[in-house]
User: What shape does this take?
Amino acid sequence: MLRNYLKIAFRNLMRRKLFSLINILGLSVGIAFSLLIGVYIIQEKQVNADLKNPDQQFIVKSDWKVKEMGLDITTVAPLPKAMKEEYPHLVSNYYRFNPVTNVVSAGDKHFKENIAIGDTTLVSMYGFPLLHGNTEQAFRDNNSAVITESMAIKLFGKTDVLNERISIAATTGEQQDYLVSAVMKDISKNSVTGLFGETYSVFVPTIGNRYYPGGDPAVSWQSIYEIGLLELRPGVTPASMEKPFEQVLAKYADETTRANLTVKLAPVRDYYLKDNNNAVNRVIVTLSLVALFIISMAVINFININIGTSTYRLKEIGLRKVFGGARSQLVMQYLTEAMVLTLISGFLSVIFYEALRPFFSQVLQTSLLPCWQFSWVQIGFFVLLLLAVGLLAGIYPALVLSAVRISKAVKGKMDDSRGGMILRKSLLVVQFSLAILVFICGLTISSQVSYIFNKDLGYNKEQVLIVTAFPKQWDSTGVGRMMAVREGLKQVPSVKAASLTFEIPDRKPPNAASLQGEGMDQPVLIPALNVDENFGKTLGLNLSAGTFFNDKGAHIPGQVVINESAAKAFGWTAETAIGKTLKLPPSNVLTVKGVVKDFNYSSFNEEIGPLAFFHIEDALSYRFFAIKVVGDDMTAAINSVKSKWKELLPNAPFDYFFMDDKFASLYASELRLKKATSLATVLNLFIVFMGVFGIISFTIARRNREIAVRKVLGADIKSILLLFIKEYAWLILLANVIAWPLAYWFAHQWLQQYVYRVQQNLTPFFVAGLSVFGIAVVLIGLLSMKPATSNPVRNLRAE
Amino acid sequence: MLDLKGIYKWVNAGNNRTFLLKDINLTINEGEFVSIMGPSGSGKSTLLNIIGMLDDFNEGEYYFLHESVHKLKEKQRSDLYKRYIGFVFQAYHLIDELTVYENIETPLIYQGVKSAERKALVADILDRFQIVGKKDLFPTQLSGGQQQLVGIARALIGKPKLLLADEPTGNLNSAQGEVIMQLFNELNKEGVTIIQVTHSEKNAAYGSRIINLLDGMVQK
Assistant: This one.
């Protein structure tokens, strides 16, 4: 029986090549897109699943009463350790690390690396697989380092590097040596070593560490910038930890911390998905919706075309019934056909998948698995997807067609052609609505993205080279040396300005200062950044009043520059602020030297708030050189800066990026979304118009006689074309009516996350609506041209 | 009313030229009721289509109301037959998607008649053919005879001078056929020129003149 079904199925596919082609193309594009998205989602959900006991792992987060008091992602350094010691029946393990970036050297090789100065529980707690070394005791002693496979290759050219010596530059200006005691297999994406997007490659013990002048950074209850993680005992819930946290804080922490800090535990398992205001989850939901749209479009095409062309099949159905075919058998036969078609499409979609994989990996900034590496779970999902699509596409036509009464079927007439028509038209309206909806949303996303990239930020991000400043020796000697390097860099002809700074405008400065303005009775917490007097000039900040520190001449201690919002927060204007003093505990008094116009120092999701600039020679910490270069030949400019750098700092790696690239990377998810929606728009339109093409083809074939009659009755070409266009114009109009409010709502929701955003206007709506209409008119025109111009006699005679 | 002079029509199949019509010379005056007869394939329908300007001919001259049709452009020709000619088909050729009323109205729309006037004209003809009660039905809901009545009503709605009918009773039973032929007779008496193609001697007898065709030639 099945063989018979298959044979009939193939013959039918072959006989109606055009429609088979439309169906297969549409379905395979839809399935391929779903497959790409599906694999992406599975991979994203898989992040952190490889960790040992993933459901018992938690991140210790901080909820400060005043946001500026600390970071939410870090905690009080000794807290996790104390929790394990005081509550061993609740906490089974802890890991803390202090994330730093500095130069790691082996022999004469120097690299800028992310280094985690942390506890030695790293490997045993999370079960990271080792290539070399002892899993139970990865760190032999406090002079041991654990590095990743690729780090080993970078430094030594091989992975078996146990007992090799590496040295890490410290902020004291010294080097600290370590012996490699274990080499980890490269770690897959996870929220422990990749907590804030950066990946760490070198791990050293916090005990005995000399990176900071004070030694081990994890012992002081004053230090609140340590990353802390806990593994709870099985069955222990985060809620049951609330009291223990309070008790430990009460026992050890100081008054301010106790009063302002609430400790929160966030599960590591889904941290990646939920981090950053649900960013990854939102992308997943958006992409799933888009994939769902596209696949339903393809399924709708299949249903529409199948029912529309069913007149070809009715006679066959009638005869089968006459000869005793049961309805269930007919349904099976139709389903088999749908399945065969879906399977062919599925096969094609795998080819599409492979072809599109590199492009998608780039858009989604991940590496999608090649299809030959699919796990059984992924293959299972794929097969389920195919079955579901086949069933969805096949079941309705199967039920409708098999239900046609014998007498009508044999004559080749549908029971109720009007009913079928309404269904077909509603499905078309659904398709058009979805296409227009995605189109409008895509256009809105594009316009927000171009707004982000074209808005006047208040500083100039173009042609600013950011070079990591090494060595990081955070004292007056170190700063003095770096200032000398800055002066050296300025001598390069293509360098217009250079600045030594701790911050660049890619985030809200995490350190806040408690500043009390002259005449104020309360201090305010204001994010502060440490920069030098050239920072304003290098980044093109606009001064409202005063000067950017002492820009002509030697450094004068005790000066501060604030932005206009800060001036307002102190109750001053830009002009009156100059010369006013600010009290900074414990006993510093700063004089306001300049006021800059507000600028976008972080992403558009955050409102511009008060900001204070401290001079780097007062604050004594730095991370970057910002270098403004001029000229058209950037490569040459970079090379000249680089050779000067090598001359000034022969042992420091020249690690650089451009400010505008950094800026763009803040909006990676927006750019990703923009690309994804543009692609989805194109695919949607492609599938819809393929469907419309199919439907018009068969309606025209069926209406040949009608067109001929109309021509005989005196219709000219124009009125025949209008006849068809009018039919679809209504559908498209209706689809616009449905899609516009939805699109407005979606776009509105999406735009809400930005403090600085475009106003929605009618342009995207009209562009989407009119282009869909335009394409439809052209398509209909082309298709109906032939019957409209052909000789009616021929079509009438065929009757 | 119309004059055909030396009309030839052929099709080329490979090297062979098959003649559908050969040297047709025919004059039909106003008020005539002509029946074209002949066996299948003798060229009856082709001749009718040429007279109705639905089909081209390869050679000869055709004058319709003193216009030389063979010199007219497509557009002018279509204007001409839109105004003066009505068609009735063997298979009715009603538009299934339109109601009886809309079917009859269609030619008026194409002739650019105003809506109010259309309403009046359609109402008149529905009344005359006694099918007012059927005006909102679809063609599939009618019997063959009723469908043909609608077909004729549609052909007459534009007040043509010439009615062309290609086997108008071919799909009908004899009683229904009788009704249609009676109707033609009446119309003819009112001054409509009618040319019909028929197989039936009896139907042909309603006409005032019979033209016999054989192998594309008029038999004398």
